[in-house]
Amino acid sequence: MIHATAYGGTQANTLFENAITASPFLPQTFHYNSQVVLEQYWAFAQAVGCARLDTLKCLQAAKSESLIVANAEIASKSLSGVFAWKPVIDGTLIPQLLSKTLDGQLNGKSVLTGNNANEGFAFTPQNITTQAAFTAYLQLYFPRLSTENLTLIQSVYTTPADILDSATTPKFATSGLSAPTAVNQSQLSTGHQQVANNFYSEVTFVCPSYWLAAAYERAVGNASFQYQFSVTPALHGFDVGFYFPSPARPVDAGVSSAFQQAYAGFVMEGVPADWPRKTEESPMMQNLNATGGRPVDMGLFTVFVDPGVQVAGGPVDADIWEGGRKMRCNFLRSLADELMI
């Protein structure tokens, strides 16, 4: 995602012509000289033993072992699910908040971008069972949100009374086309926990994919293709085994082949097989899913394996997907300065 807008999008096709972004990661991004970044830098330097005036030279001369230990120490103090080291706004490679750079020029010609159905589960604390707990989560992870911001978020990311915060509440994958939606229901969680999972998922992975697709579809002469990988459990990273299959981790051959053909078509021809091109007039994306197969209980979730797995899904309207995802992404983008995205 950074390369799409690197140097203000002035690189044309010198970096690449076509880009594939699977689960594009957009963490909170701060200016390189901000207090948050400087405090982290000094904490790292101190952990290495370089807390003096010539800090940079000291760090450059430090042993790798010392840097590794200091890195682990700083990372261990980060919030659960948050990476300690992230890109920073330097005014050149990253001119401003990444969600805002997409309003300007773009590098390359076309993009194939997508997300998984359950991106946020692995990065969100799994103890959020009340509205108060969701509020506390937002305040801790996104401390720049005002009281008004929090109220607005909770009006968009909410759960009805009939979807309970209970371990016994039925958990199932949503269709994406009708209620209940991913806002408060999934195969992994329900209620306020799913609200939190989905909020992190959309602000960090899903909406960046939407924004990237929209940026390329607006640009004259560019093309945009978008997809969602929905094969259960569709966790972050679960898709990798399908387009880069490994004998050590076998997956359904049919779904894997469909994914590989789409990627290969985009690499070779600039078009991902028979997946739809996304335009403002026809905001279609490919929903890659599977049906059938033998269920295997993995504890927190169920996977389905051959024999009997068949490719499912197809083109869907990305704008209205999961109860109006485009609307929620537009809303989150309006809070870019508070969310630091």
UniProtKB/TrEMBL annotation:
Which segments constitute the Carboxylesterase type B domain? 11-288
List the Gene3D superfamilies.
alpha/beta hydrolase (3.40.50.1820)
Task: List, alphabetically, the SUPFAM superfamilies matched.
Answer: alpha/beta-Hydrolases
Its name, as the record gives it, is: Putative carboxylesterase type b protein
Please spell out the taxonomic lineage of the organism that makes this protein: Eukaryota, Fungi, Dikarya, Ascomycota, Pezizomycotina
